[in-house]
Each structure stands twice: as structure tokens, then as C-alpha cells.
């Protein structure tokens, strides 16, 4: 048999749960919560008229606190997401990745780097063009992920990271190809903004947008946590990027030749 205090705690939980889910534009929902509070007050021996008054006052206070809580939660969620990609920011991704690592299961880390972002900035319209490039890549990644339980973050200006639990290497390579194919639907011309007056240099016309991708599995790293897995994936991504710039016809993308763009 439940004790009185247990019953009261359950009633309080019910009130708070309803409040948390409440639509404050729905008068019936609000009245239902007020009535629950009133019933609880009546059980405590408070008179009907006083219970009505106190229930309404208590509800008003609880509603104000809930509204403030929702506002804070909304602002916090906005801070957790990168405004261009809508992916997690670096610090939040790291926290979530640590949880995945502590679970003890197998997972993969994918590092993706945008190629020739500097060309977008220098020839296509500055940061507006660069931001468009970032959004195109993020959209391609989102479409390829397609609702699967994958953590996605924008970890630096032109770099993204995925944390992927329990995926085979074949499926992972297929996912990476899907991302690449979606990015390559666009060309450098698609980045040019209306503010650009000079024509795009002929050597860049018709060139597809490209990304470099490297990945590593948890099993590939003997010591260290998720950051060690990411470090290996990052090394492989950088090696892939260098291979891209070393290919015939791609050196034109390396504007300084000594530094990858």
C-alpha cells in the first residue's frame, strides 16, 4: 500500500509532467492542471474557495517558471548547434563522443574536410560564398545520414566530424561515397554570389565541389579514448586531402602550393 507521502509525490510528479508538456494557448489544458492542484489542496483540508484561489496563484507561478525554463532550454540548444550546419559544436560533440566511448561498443569516427574553400572565399564572393559551401556540404551529410543514429559536428571552419556506432566498414564507405556524390552535384559556379563583378577564372569553371574524408574505427586504436580515434581519422583525412592536390589537374586548386586550401 502506498503511503500518503508517496501518493503526494506521485501527484506532484503528475502536475509537473503536465506542466512541462502543456500548451499554454489551450485553456482546457491549463484548467486541468489548476484542478489537479486544487484537488491536492482540498485533500490537505483547505476550504473550497481558498483552494480555488491558491491553486490559481500556484499555477500562475509554476507557469512563469516553466516558461522561463523553456526559454533557457531554447537558448542552450541554440548554443549547442553550429548556426551554419545545424550540427553540434565541437565541445558538445566531444562530450557526446566520450559517452559513446565509455559505452564500450564499437564505433567509427569520420573526419571530413572541405577542399579549396579558399577559392570560394577569394573568387566567389568572400565569406558569403564560403558559408554557402559549408551549407552545401552539411546538407549533403544530413541527406546521407538520413535519420540514422549518427552524431554530427562541425569541429572547425571547414571540418566536420561524425561519430557512428555499430556500422560495418562496407556501410561506412558507402555512406562516405553518398556524401561525396551529393557534394559533387555542385560546381564552383554555384558558389558565386551576385556581388562578384569579375568572371570566375576559366581554370575553375565547371569544377565540381569536393571533400576529403578519412575514418577510423575504435578497434584501430590500442590506447586512448575517442580523441585518439579522431586523431587517426584526421590523419587519414589529411593524407586523402594531400593525394587530391597531388593528382594531375588539381594543383591549380592549391593557391599557395605550399599549404593545403
Task: Provide tags for this entry.
261 residues; alpha+beta; Alpha-Beta Plaits; 5-stranded mixed beta sheet; 55% helix; elongated; disordered N terminus
Low-confidence stretches: 1-7, 257-261
Shape: elongated
Compute the number of strand runs: 5
Q: Report mean pLDDT, rounded to a whole number.
A: 85
| CATH architecture descriptor name of the largest domain | 2-Layer Sandwich
Strand content: 5-15%
CATH class of the largest domain: Alpha Beta
Tell me the strand order in the biggest sheet. 1-3-4-2-5
| Helix-strand sequence | HHHEHEHHEEHEH
Per CATH, what is the topology of the largest domain? Alpha-Beta Plaits
**Computed structural class:** alpha+beta
Total count of helical runs of at least 4 residues:
8
Tell me about the largest β-sheet: 5 strands, mixed
Fraction of residues in helix: 55-70%
Classified in CATH, the superfamily of the largest domain is Reverse transcriptase/Diguanylate cyclase domain
**Overall number of domains:** 2
Radius of gyration: 27 Å
Distance between the termini: 70 Å
Explain the layout of strands and helices.
Layout: H1 4-21, H2 27-43, H3 48-80, E1 88-89, H4 90-102, E2 107-114, H5 117-123, H6 126-145, E3 151-156, E4 159-165, H7 169-183, E5 211-217, H8 226-246
Parallel strand pairs: 1-3
Antiparallel strand pairs: 2-4, 2-5, 3-4
Account of the 3D structure:
- It is built from eight helices and five strands; from the N terminus they run H-H-H-E-H-E-H-H-E-E-H-E-H.
- By secondary structure, the chain is an alpha+beta fold.
- The chain has two domains: 4-80; 88-253, Alpha-Beta Plaits.
- The model is unreliable at 1-7 and 257-261 (pLDDT under 50).
Amino acid at each position: 500500500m502506498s503511503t500518503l507521502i508517496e501518493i503526494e509525490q506521485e501527484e506532484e510528479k503528475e502536475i509537473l509532467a503536465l506542466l512541462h508538456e502543456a500548451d499554454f494557448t489551450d485553456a482546457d489544458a491549463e484548467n486541468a492542471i489548476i484542478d489537479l492542484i486544487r484537488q491536492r489542496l482540498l485533500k490537505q483540508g483547505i476550504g473550497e474557495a481558498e483552494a480555488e484561489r491558491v491553486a490559481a496563484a500556484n499555477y500562475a507561478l509554476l507557469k512563469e517558471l516553466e516558461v522561463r525554463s523553456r526559454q533557457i532550454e531554447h537558448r542552450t540548444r541554440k548554443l549547442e548547434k553550429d548556426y551554419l550546419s545545424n550540427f553540434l559544436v565541437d565541445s558538445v560533440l566531444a562530450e557526446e563522443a566520450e559517452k559513446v566511448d565509455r559505452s564500450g561498443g564499437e564505433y567509427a569516427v569520420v573526419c571530413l574536410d572541405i577542399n579549396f574553400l579558399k577559392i570560394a572565399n577569394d573568387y566567389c564572393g568572400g565569406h558569403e560564398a564560403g558559408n554557402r559551401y559549408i551549407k552545401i556540404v552539411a546538407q549533403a551529410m544530413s541527406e546521407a545520414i538520413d535519420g540514422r543514429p549518427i552524431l554530427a559536428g562541425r569541429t572547425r571552419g571547414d571540418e566536420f566530424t561524425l561519430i557512428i556506432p555499430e556500422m560495418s566498414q562496407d556501410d561506412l564507405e558507402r555512406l562516405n561515397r553518398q556524401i561525396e556524390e551529393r557534394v559533387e552535384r555542385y560546381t564552383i559556379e554555384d558558389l558565386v554570389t551576385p556581388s562578384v563583378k569579375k568572371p570566375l577564372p576559366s581554370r575553375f569553371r565547371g569544377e565540381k565541389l569536393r571533400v576529403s574524408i578519412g575514418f577510423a574505427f575504435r578497434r584501430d586504436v590500442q590506447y586512448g579514448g575517442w580523441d585518439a580515434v579522431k586523431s587517426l581519422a584526421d590523419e587519414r583525412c589529411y593524407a586523402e586531402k594531400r593525394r587530391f592536390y597531388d593528382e594531375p589537374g588539381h594543383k591549380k586548386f592549391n593557391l599557395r602550393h605550399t599549404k593545403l586550401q
